[in-house]
Amino acid sequence: MAAALALALAAAVLATASLRAGAVWLDVPQSGTKCVSEEIQSNVVVLADYAIMFESHPSSHPTIAVKVTSPYGNMLHHNENATIGQFAFTTAEAGNYLACFWIDSTEKGSGVSVNLDWKIGIATKDWDAIAKKEKIEQLSNMADDCLLCLCREAEMRTVSEKTNARVAWFSILSLGVCIAVSILQLWHLQGYFRKKKLI
């Protein structure tokens, strides 16, 4: 019982660890750097969006610089004079990945607020877009199926109309043959009865 509970707890921890996604607001000072680090395993997809929040600075429009590095110091992303941006990569080694932000414009003011939406692993997939794509594919398949059904219905209608016309002509021909045979029988019987002097 205790082993099953421990196994279930371990599975829950692993599931929540693989579904990490978080958005944070960073207050970047007018001088200096603000960094965020995340410990990530190797071969994990990372996707992040960042943007300056202009509500705190309605009159000025400062820009920021962004630098993302791996645990061994390899630069994965570098952007300057940005107000909005995105970075994405697949981790090559396990460890702390660091994203640093600083103000690089002359309009520093009292600092800026940056919104950072950092997604890791399965959270990087846009499930809404995938669901919409699947629905579109389903609708496309349904439309193709309806078109195929309409084509088959048209073919069946054509075959049915041809068969109906053939049966009608066969019926008329059969009726004509029956009438002709009846007339021939009457003519033959009249001739037979006249020979035998019955009529």
Q: Please identify, by name, the CATH architecture of the domain at 2-124.
A: Sandwich
* Rg estimate, integer Å: 42 Å
Weakly predicted, low-confidence segments: 1-21
What would the principal axes of the Cα set say about the shape? Answer: rod-shaped
Which secondary-structure class do the elements indicate? alpha+beta
Name the helix and strand elements from N-terminus to C-terminus, one letter apiece: HEEEEEEEEH
Family: Belongs to the EMP24/GP25L family.
Transmembrane segments: 167-187
Membrane topology: Single-pass type I membrane protein
GO cellular component, one term: membrane
Structure overview:
It is found in: Membrane. Keywords: Membrane, Signal, Transmembrane, Transmembrane helix. This protein has 199 residues and is α+β, with helices and mostly antiparallel strands. The protein has a domain at 2-124: Jelly Rolls (Sandwich). 43% of the residues lie in helices and 32% in strands. The chain has 2 helices and 8 strands. The strands form 2 sheets. The chain has a 4-stranded antiparallel sheet, with no helix packed on it. A 4-stranded antiparallel sheet has the order 2-7-4-5, with no helix packed on it. The longest helix has 69 residues, at 127-195.
